[in-house]
Amino acid sequence: MASKRAASTLAYRCTECGWTSAKWVGRCGECQQWGTVVEAATSTGIASPAVTPLAPSRSARPITEIDTRETPRRTSGIGEFDRVLGGGIVPGAAILLSGEPGVGKSTLLLEVAARTAAAGGRVLYVSAEESLAQVRLRAERTGSLHDELYLAAETDLATILGHVDETAPGLLIVDSVQTVSSGLIDGAAGHPSQVREVASTLIRVAKDRGLPVILVGHVTKDGQVAGPRILEHLVDVVCHFEGDRQTALRFVRALKNRFGATDEVGCFEQTQHGIAEVPDPSALFLGHGSREPGTCVTIALEGRRALPVEVQALTLPGSGPNPRRIVSGVDGARVAMVLAVLEKRAGLRLSDQDVYVSTVGGVRLTEPAADLAIALAVASAVSNRPNPAKLVAIGELSLAGEVRAVTQHEQRRAEATRLGYRTIVDTASPDLRSALRDLPRLHPVEPGDEPGF
C-alpha cells in the first residue's frame, strides 16, 4: 500500500529559539521575545522519508588517541586583541565582533588587517556598508595601507565568495554580516533567514579552507547582537566592542570563546590616528596625583586585569528638603547604601548634604569592591581634608558596617603594591569605624558631633 505523502502547511517559527506556532503571535511563547515569530513552511503527515546511512570519511577515534597539542595561532599584530582571543587567531575560526555604531569596530579591524598584511599574510576586507574610497580615506588617516590588503565593496554573498577564490586570502573580514544577502534566500539583507544563510555559508568556507573569518555584527537598542540568536551559536568567538562616545576609552570583551577564556578584556584608546592599544591602563583612571579632599583610589577588576580607579566625591549643604544624590560611573543604589552606612555606623551627617560621586576616565564601577573607596572619598569630602597619600581602599560594605572580603583580593593587593601604594585599607579593618580610625589623622565621628578628622 502506498504511503501517504507528507503535506506542506504554513506555520510560524521563532527566529530566536525555534519555537513553532500554528498561528502568528507577536510574542514568542518560549523565549518571550517580541517580533521574532515569522512565517515558515513545515511538513506534516504520517510518513517521513528515512535517512540513508552513509559511510564516514573518517572513522571515530578513542578520545585518548586525540592529539592534545595546541592549535597553532597567528597573531593579529595587536596584543590587546590577541589577549581577548586567547593568544591569537586560530586558522578556520569564525569570530563575531559586535558593538554600537561609531564605537570603532571598522577602525580596529582595519588596523588588524593592515598588521596582518604587514606580517606576510594576505587579507581580504569586504565592506558592505562603505565605498572603497571611504575605506581608503580611513586607512590613510590611521596608517593602515599595505599592498597585501585587498578591498572589495560587495553586498552579494556569491560575489564575495568569488573574491575569496580570486585573491586566496589568509584572513577574511566582512563588515557587516547584516548587510550581505544571498540570492538563494528570499528577503532583504538583514532578515533573520538572510543573516543565518550568510553566516553559515561563510563559516562553512572558513572550516573547509582553514581561513579565519571575522564578521562585524550590528547591535540592537539594548546592546544585544542583532539578528537570530543562532548567529552567536554558529561562530567560535563572540567579542563585544564597547565604550562611551564622550570618552576615548574602549574595551573589547569576549562573551564566548571556544579557544580561550571569556574573562579577558582588551583596553584601547580612540585617537585622531585610529585605535591605539593600551597595554598598561594604570594612569587612565587616576587624577593628577594632587592630594585633594574627596578622592580615594580602589583596585577594580576588568576581566582578569586589575586596574586602579580613582573615586571622587563632593558634598555641599543641601538647599531643599530632599538632598541631591548625583552619580557618574558608579551604581546609584550602592552609593545610597554606602551613604546610609556612613551616617548610621560612622556618625557622618549626610542627610542635609548634596552628594556627588564620580569616577575618573569614564570607567564604570559595578562591583561591590569599590564600596570602601566611595565611603572614604565621601568622608574626606565632608571633612574637607584629603586622605593620606598613596592610599588604596578595597572592600565591600555591609549594612552592619562590616568590611567584607572581595573576589581575587590577593591579586588586587599585589597590583596596589606594584603601583607603589603604601597604605592599603581592606578587610584588615573589621568594620567601617575601624577603617576610619586606622587612617592617619582620621577618626570616626560620634553621632551629634561635627564631622572631621
TrEMBL record:
Keyword Nuclease: no
Residues bound to ATP: 99-106
Residue span of region Lon-protease-like: 354-453
Superkingdom of the source species: Bacteria
Protein function: Plays a role in repairing double-strand DNA breaks, probably involving stabilizing or processing branched DNA or blocked replication forks.
Protein family according to the UniProt entry: Belongs to the RecA family. RadA subfamily.
Name of the protein: DNA repair protein RadA
Lineage: Bacteria, Bacillati, Actinomycetota, Actinomycetes, Micrococcales
